[in-house]
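Throughout our pipeline, every protein is held as a single compact record rather than as scattered files. The record that follows is passed on verbatim for readers who wish to inspect the format.
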Amino acid sequence: MRKCADWIKSYCHYTAGLEAPDICHFWTAVSTIAGALRRRVWIDQTYFHWVANFYIILVGPPGIIQKTTTIGIGKRMLQHVPGVVFGPNAITWQALVQSLAEAHEAFQLPTGEFMSQSAITCSAGELGTLLDPHDRVQMDVLTDLWDGRAEHWSKVTKGSGSDVIENPWLNIISATTPTWLAENFQESSVGGGFASRCVFVYADRKRHLIAFPRQQTPAAVQQLHDDLVEDLIQIGSLAGEVALDASAISWGTKWYEQHYKRYGSILPSDRLIGYIARKQTHMMKIAIVVAAAQRDDLTLTAADLETAAIIADSIEESFANVFSYIGQTDAGKLLQTLLDALRAAGGKAERQQLIRALIRIMDTKQFDTTLTTAIHAGLVRQVQHGSQILVYLVHHA
C-alpha cells in the first residue's frame, strides 16, 4: 500500500519550506520518479517503446532556483532506491558510454521473463559542468539516447572500436541561468535536435522568502520524508508494459488529431517546431510518471493523458521564456537585462535606482535607448510621481 496518494503532490508539500518556485520542485519530482522507474516500464507501440526519461533543465536568474538544494533533495531520495545508478557529473560522450555499459543489469518481469537495461540518471546543479553544447558529438549522442528506441545502441570509437549498450536509458536533471544559455546555445540548435528533447523549466522569482527554512518546514516532515522514500522504492520495483485502457486510446486519438489540425497547415515559430513534433512523446513520458505517482497497476487512463497534456502545454510557455535569451542581438540582450532587473525589483523601480543597478552592464546612453525601445514595444511604461520617475513592467502596472 502506498503511503502517499500522489507522490508528486506529497513531494511538493515536503519542499514547501523552501524558496524555489513550485514548478522547480514539481519537475524535480518528475525526474525523481523517472529515475526510479528507469527502463523497467514502457509503452509498447510495436515499432518502438515510449520510456519515461527526461532531460529537465531548470532555468532562472542566480539565487532564484537554488539549483543545488532543489535538485539535491530528489537525488538523495533516489539514492535509496535499489539498483538506481547515477552517471558522471561531467558528461563527455566517452564517459557517458562507459557509465551506461557499467550500469547494465537484468531484471525480472511479473511473467518470470528476464529483460535487461543500461539505465543511469545524471543529476547536477550546474548544467555547465554537466555538458558542453559546443561539443557536436556529445550533443548527437545525447539526442540519440533520449529516444530510448535502440535495443542495442553502439558508438564507434577510435581506441576501442564499437561500444555496444543494451537497452540504454538516460535521465538528466540540471539547472542553469539564462545568461549561460545565451552564451552557450546557438540559435541554430534551438529548433530541433537536443533542445527540442529538453524540458526547459523557467522561473524568475522565488515563491516566498524564508530566512530560516527550519522554522517553515511542514509538520511531521521526517515522517513525510520517510513515506516518500518508501513509496519511491515501491515505484522503483514496478516492471512491465504500461497498457492504455479504452478511455486513454479514445482520448489520445482525439488529442493527436487536434494537435496536427492545429499545427498541420500553420507551423509555429521555428523555435518550437522541434518540440511540437515531439510533443506526443513528451506527453506519453509524462503520463507514465503521473500514473506511477499514484498507483501500481501499470495502466494509463484518459485522466492520466489529460493531465499529461496540460503539463506538456506548460512546457511551451517555458520554451518561449528560455528561448528569448538565445540568439539575441546586443540590443536584445540589453533589453532582456532591463526587463529582468524590473522583474527582480517586483515589477517597478525608480529610474535612477534602475540606472545604478545596471551601470556595470550599460552606460546611460545605452540605458536611455533600451528603455525607449521597451516603452515603444509596450513592455514597460514610465510614470512621473512627484520628483520621482517610476518604471513599470506593463503586466505589473
Q: What stands out?
A: The mean pLDDT is 89. The chain is about 45% helix and 20% strand. Residues 302-323 form the longest helix (22 residues).
